[in-house]
Amino acid sequence: MFKDIKQVMKDSVLYGIGNVAVKLVGFILIPLYTDAEYFSTADYGLMGLLEVTSQILIAVMGLSLYSGLIRWYWDAEYRDKQKTIFFTTLLFTILTSLCIGSVLWLNVGELSALLVQQEGYSLGGELPYILQLLILTSMLGAVVEVPQNLLRLQRKPIYYSLTNIVRLFVTLVLTIYFTISLHRGVSGVYEAQLVGIVIQLLMVLPLVIKNSSCRVDRKCTIQLLVYSYPLVFPAIVGSLLTVFDRYIINHFQGLDDVGFYSLGYKVGNTLKVFIVTSVQLALTPLLMKKMNDPDNKRFYSKVLTYFSFGLMFCALGLNLFSREGIVWVTTNPDYIEALYVIPFVTYAIFFSMMRECCMIGLQIMKKTKIISYVIVGITILNFFLNMLLVPSMGMYGAALSTMIVHVISWLACYIFAQRYYPIPYELSKVGKVFVVGTILYLIGILFNETAIGISILVKLVILAGYPFLLYKWHFYDKDEWNNLKGAWKKWSDLRRLKENVKNVKYRES
């Protein structure tokens, strides 16, 4: 079991490089996006709205078919039809994207009026063109998701990462050129994104050709759609779960507050981009492959424990140093308003991760409709909580609402999953992780206003105390503590850093 977990960690590093590359553009360009010479706070707020709109479009166009691909690709009954399953998934995704994209393209004027209602906003006239760029990018994004998931299934993280890194480089260079040299503003940002996704699609084209069998098998198609269709609505609603807040803040508070909130959310969301998604990219195929193993339940239990331990450590570090980070990356002091949005977002991501881990039982038992009901329910709750809290608390009300609904969603998925596929999760250990992480964060924020040198030093000590406080609280069993000490001994020796990095190898199957 430890061997499997170590393999997941190695894969996570490689997938993480590629996954982070896609999202990294937004983080690298924060100093540019928050520079008043090129973008106003309202411009940044608009980009925040457009970013979440793109997430919704990709979810709608993708129809969650990639979930069916992941589920059936390694199924013993369909091993000889893998190329047919892949081709069917890709074909349906392309057709859906074309249909939805065409409808949206014909109505960009009306969509522009709905999206920006702020009087006197100077960019309003360019918005239809920007939305057309967004529609094209979203269509291609939904399509490229299919071969990217195939790379995961075939365990080719280097290929996966390379395509994303090239996309990052192209998008980054063109964004800087279009914005600074050509003064294209928000339009230049989305022109660069479109070119980047086209390059990525060309890079995976050989993979698509090699792994496609240009035929549609009736039985495969039915199985694919039957498994995927219950996930379509929750995928769309799940996207809405994370974007309602921006639209509601825009309605009640305006684009400037959307800009502040978007920055806080983006900083907090680094936890998901760098850690959660990277681990899940490596972990999900392994979880499915182990579903018939005799020790699978213990493995699933330990995944939640170790994932919670590592994620809370990262969340604590991000929360502690978020003030210093915002001051460092932004030139506009107004953006410090985003500071206290961040911890709500990181805790929401923590419980979201727990929900994803606990859903494995429902996926194994093919109870995907329950997942749909849970996601729909908490999305409706999130909407009403935002409508209740945002008018009085502004963006902080939106952040609080996000955290509350993710706690409830984890609890609901856990209860239903245990009913159909009981797994002996170590919830007492997860609870210790949560309590220790929260207490240390509350201690750390007391030093936010002290001199920056003292503040950083104290916060580093607080962060380093996290694993030792858990040790005092009897968090680790004997094997876990020995493995932790061994890892510390290995990686703390900087003289052997190069050798250790070389040893982290991956052999593509």
UniProtKB/TrEMBL annotation:
Query: Which ranges does the record mark as transmembrane?
Result: 12-34, 54-74, 86-107, 127-146, 158-180, 192-209, 229-249, 269-287, 299-318, 338-358, 370-389, 395-417, 429-447, 453-471
Mind naming one GO cellular-component term on file for this protein?
Answer: plasma membrane
- Where, subcellularly, is it found? Cell membrane
* Annotated coiled-coil segments of the chain: none
Q: How does it sit in the membrane?
A: Multi-pass membrane protein
Species source reads Butyricimonas virosa
Q: What is this protein called?
A: Oligosaccharide flippase family protein
Task: Could you list this entry's UniProt keywords, alphabetically sorted.
Answer: Cell membrane, Membrane, Transmembrane, Transmembrane helix
Q: Which residues form the signal peptide?
A: none
Q: Does the keyword Cell membrane apply?
A: yes
**In the UniProt record, does the keyword Cell membrane occur?**
yes
